[in-house]
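Translate sequence into structure tokens.
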Amino acid sequence: MAMMEEIVKKADLLGYRGEKREEYSKQEFELLEERQAREKKQEAELQERREKANRKERLELEKMKLDAEMKLLQAKIEAGIIKNEPEQQREVERRRGQTPETAKLSRWKG
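Result follows.
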């Protein structure tokens, strides 16, 4: 409402009276509303771009983290610190003297 009062004061200062003042005030108010709508739309678009950039950055960081974890695990596997699950399972079965078929049966029987 304060904006409307300012528009009316400006019309008075410009010397508009009566119908001309109302017409001028109406036009100025419409221009003000349009400008505010444009600014609001631009701000929403800017916020959307920021969120999209942040999402993209988070995904890139997550990918880098997963790549690093994968490389670390691969290095541990290659160094023999840990073994691939299938390889590890076969090693356990070999130590028990089981063949793959009997190992499946013993796993199934639980």
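Note: The chain has four helices and no strands.
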